[in-house]
Backbone:
């Protein structure tokens, strides 16, 4: 065939390259879900700010400047400065780092542990399921922040403990949702087939059931991201989360912000805008992702 | 039905017991205890004897297991013990603050429902138009805005625009309703906005779902007035999930109040909880968590039963 004169390149109507395919998917998502794309844009800006904080931030987040104490927004300090003369814009950029670190770690570990527990609970059923579900019941009975505060009280404050305090209440919530997804899949013929073929429990759970609960898992994960950022901000605001001098949005609203609210309102305004915008972005993106992945699990 | 009720009630018992165990264990993991905290404030050197005496008074010297049985025995008698910080009965500490928090909770709920039902219905009727997008952005923003920051912004707006701050001293509603409301409406708004966001989204999706039902098409086909279809056929059926969400969120309101009360400097249950956590007041934290969790478990049960009772399509198993 290659010797023929009109040898055509069989790859001519080529599959678009992976990069182009990804780009097309992005364009499609933007066209169909403008709100989701806006959310994704906010999230991307936030991630860039967090990663390149050292490069973009105009000042050192910890540098105090007593000449600029409670300074109003100006050409030097775009968003003003706080009671120690620290630049607010810089601290907000670095705050994105703290928020994302806490948010991603807590949401990822929380949702993943929940996924494993939920799927195992659904797969084994019977007594194991009953016991796991009763334990889940217990933990779900605590409002998120109440359990998080109790954990902080027991373990202390600081970034690592805050992550733990946030992820513990998330595990049972994720487990509940993933379990109900997995229950439906357990009844599928291919799971019976896998069992009949003599595969071990571990393999059936990991290879046959988990991939089919991924949609539910992703939805849980994205909704946890926003919640985790909000929870971290609340804990830090109460003085029971991230501690000074780490730049964190909630912490920036603790103490000084309300004390100087009248003379330096920028201290109270901008960190809150950052929190709201970040959570807003994650929620918008998560909502659209949920609609795209599974219409049955539509926005509550 | 009776069988279902009985089963649900029986299932509540291990959950409540589990909550009691979890919170007991968590509180015992605290580094240091209240005696050290309190005595540390009094001077540089405290005799060991004094510490031991104080511990004995609070029952902290007993073995863990006995502390636990004492605690459970007390719970069974609805005896929550004494605050380790003030020495007053826990029920008293909670009782004086309960009214305030309950009032804010009720006001937030009213605000949330008044916002959510019209907005959610409107968004569903105008699905995928700018009205729908507007409502959705408003409600997603409500979920994103921390209620404590909204509170700060409300106070700030009053300060800057009117040079006025909401009164800081609590007046019970029966003494001076006007002073009471002008103080409490703001924290209720700050908490209610977030709460309304959850309910708006639920209303929207419930109405959307109902509008696709056959009986709505039938009603339309027989030429029924649009308003009547909406009110009598659609909304009535859509309200069930909305009531559920509102009911369940009510139990969680205390969580929202924890931060809002801090902003408005209100001495309610939420502030009491934060204080108790920072002061290692085990008994108070235990009692508060037990109450919140029990309220949640019971309201969950009530919502489920109501649901089954209101909607004959749901079967009891």
Residues:
């Amino acid at each position: 065939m290659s010797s023929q004169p009109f040898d055509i390149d069989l790859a001519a109507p080529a599959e678009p390259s992976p990069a182009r395919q990804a780009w097309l998917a992005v364009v499609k998502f933007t066209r169909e879900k403008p709100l989701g794309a806006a959310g994704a844009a906010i999230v991307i800006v936030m991630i860039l700010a967090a990663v390149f904080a050292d490069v973009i931030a105009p000042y050192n987040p910890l540098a105090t400047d007593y000449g600029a104490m409670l300074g109003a927004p100006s050409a030097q300090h775009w968003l003003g400065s706080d009671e120690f003369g620290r630049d607010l814009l810089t601290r907000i950029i670095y705050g994105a780092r703290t928020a994302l670190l806490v948010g991603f770690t807590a949401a990822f570990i929380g949702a993943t542990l929940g996924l494993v527990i939920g799927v195992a609970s659904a797969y084994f059923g019977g007594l194991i399921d009953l016991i796991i579900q009763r334990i889940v019941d217990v933990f779900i009975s605590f409002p998120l922040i109440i359990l998080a505060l109790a954990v902080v009280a027991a373990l202390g404050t600081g970034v690592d403990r805050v992550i733990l305090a946030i992820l513990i209440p998330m595990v049972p919530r994720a487990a509940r949702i993933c379990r109900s997804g997995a229950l439906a899949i357990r009844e599928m013929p291919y799971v019976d087939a896998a069992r009949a073929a003599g595969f071990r429990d571990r393999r059936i759970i990991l290879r046959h059931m988990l991939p089919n609960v991924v949609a539910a898992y992703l939805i849980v994960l994205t909704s946890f991201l926003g919640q985790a950022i909000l929870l971290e901000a609340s804990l830090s605001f109460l003085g029971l989360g991230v501690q000074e001098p780490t730049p964190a949005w909630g912490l920036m609203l603790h103490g000084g912000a309300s004390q100087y609210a009248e003379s330096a309102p920028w201290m109270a305004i901008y960190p809150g805008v950052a929190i709201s915008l970040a959570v807003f972005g994650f929620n918008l993106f998560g909502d659209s992702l949920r609609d795209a992945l599974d219409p049955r699990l539509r926005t509550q | 039905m009776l069988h279902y009720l009985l089963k649900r009630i029986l299932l509540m018992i291990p959950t409540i017991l589990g909550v009691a165990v979890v919170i007991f264990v968590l509180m015992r993991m605290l580094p240091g205890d209240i005696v050290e905290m309190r005595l540390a404030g009094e001077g540089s050197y405290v005799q060991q004897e004094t510490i031991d005496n104080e511990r004995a008074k609070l029952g902290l010297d007993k073995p863990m297991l006995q502390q636990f049985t004492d605690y459970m025995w007390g719970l069974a008698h609805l005896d929550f013990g004494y605050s380790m910080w003030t020495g007053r009965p826990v029920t008293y500490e909670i009782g004086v603050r309960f009214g305030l928090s309950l009032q804010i909770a009720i006001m937030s709920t009213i605000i949330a429902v008044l916002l959510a039902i019209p907005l959610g219905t409107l968004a569903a009727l105008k699905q995928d138009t700018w009205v729908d997008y507007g409502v959705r952005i408003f409600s997603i923003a409500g979920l994103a805005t921390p209620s404590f920051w909204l509170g700060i912004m409300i106070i700030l707006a009053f300060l800057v625009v009117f040079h006025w701050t909401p009164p800081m001293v609590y007046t019970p509603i029966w003494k001076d309703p006007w002073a009471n409301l002008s103080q409490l409406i703001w924290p209720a708004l700050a908490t209610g906005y977030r709460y309304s966001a959850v309910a708006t989204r639920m209303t929207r999706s419930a109405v959307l779902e109902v509008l696709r039902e056959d009986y709505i098409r039938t009603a339309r086909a027989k030429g029924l007035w649009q308003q009547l279809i909406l009110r009598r056929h659609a909304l009535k059926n859509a309200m069930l999930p909305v009531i559920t969400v509102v009911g369940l969120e009510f139990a969680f309101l205390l969580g929202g109040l924890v931060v809002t009360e801090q902003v408005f400097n209100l001495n309610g249950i939420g502030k009491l909880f934060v204080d108790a956590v920072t002061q290692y007041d085990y008994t108070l934290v235990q009692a508060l968590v037990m109450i919140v969790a029990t309220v949640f478990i019971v309201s969950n049960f009530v919502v489920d039963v109501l649901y089954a009772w209101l909607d004959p399509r749901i079967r009891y198993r």
Observations:
- The two ends of chain A are 59 Å apart (CA to CA).
- Chain A has a mean pLDDT of 83.
- Residues 88-124 of chain A form the longest helix (37 residues).
